[in-house]
Amino acid sequence: MQGKLIIFSAPSGAGKTTIVHHLLKKIPELSFSISATTRPKRGDEKHESDYYFIRTEEFLHKVAHQEFVEFEEVYKGTYYGTLRSEIQRIWDEGKHVIFDIDVEGGLRLRRKYENDSLAIFVQPPSLQVLKERLSGRGTDSLDKLEERFIKAEKELLYADKFDVILKNNDLDVACAEAEQIVRDFLSKN
Fold first, then answer.
1. In the 3-class helix/strand/coil scheme, how is 138-149 assigned residue by residue?
2. Is 42's pLDDT higher than 90?
3. pLDDT above 90 covers what percent of the chain?
4. Residue 139 has pLDDT above 90, yes or no
5. Which terminus of the chain is less hemmed in, N or C, by CB atoms within 10 Å?
6. Which positions ≥6 away from 51 have C-beta within 8 Å?
7. Residue 1 has pLDDT above 70, yes or no
8. Phi and psi at residue 125, in whole multiples of 5°?
9. What is the pTM for the complete model shown?
10. How far apart are CA 79 and CA 73, in angstroms?
């Protein structure tokens, strides 16, 4: 079976991960696409659950062998990508794929699977709120935070290229709206 793809993208800190986790609890036909990355683990992240953490050399080897549907160097020296085998694994389980992915990767997936995907951009209340959320995490150095802020400003400009812009002014409301949007999409042939 080839299922559908639900793509959630947003600048870091907009709430997409929380919304995706909510949907995974509420909609059993969804399965999370685990991205591959070369960045180190943060906090209590787990290999093969949160990400496939791989060395840069291995990542580039997979790129050369066209094992990725999409990939990019999100930050200097840090790669992220979606493995073809990951999408197939989920489809083989008879489920639909849900992604928590950066903006450019989300748009590449959308173009590649145009007829079978729904791309949702999670819009934060403001750039200032986004900066406060990122700073409040306490997981990044000041240099890394500045890099994220610059990237976030750029990513906000891509919102209108997505099928749906989901405003995350109130997380509970955004989760409920996301659930309705996804259920409607999955119910269509």
1. CCCCHHHHHHHH
2. no
3. 70
4. no
5. C
6. 34, 35, 36, 37, 41, 45
7. no
8. -60, -35
9. 0.87
10. 4
14 DSSP 8-state letter: S
Most distant CA pair in the chain, distance: 47
Instruction: Please give the C-alpha separations between residue 101 and each of 1, 142, 143, 188, in angstroms, as whole numbers.
Output: 23, 23, 22, 24
- Determine how β-strand 35-37 pairs with β-strand 78-83: antiparallel
pLDDT (mean) for 9-20: 89
- Name the token pair of 118: 């729904």
Judge contact between 62 and 68, C-beta under 8 A. Answer: yes
Above 80 in pLDDT, residue 18? yes
Task: Return the CATH superfamily for domain 5-187.
Answer: P-loop containing nucleotide triphosphate hydrolases (3.40.50.300)
* Token output for 39: 């960045």
Please tell me which residue, 122 or 102, carries the higher pLDDT value: 122
Q: Which tokens belong to 23?
A: 């949907």
Where exactly are the structural domains of the chain? 5-187
- Tokens 């150095």 locate to 141
Token pair of 61 as six digits: 């080897």
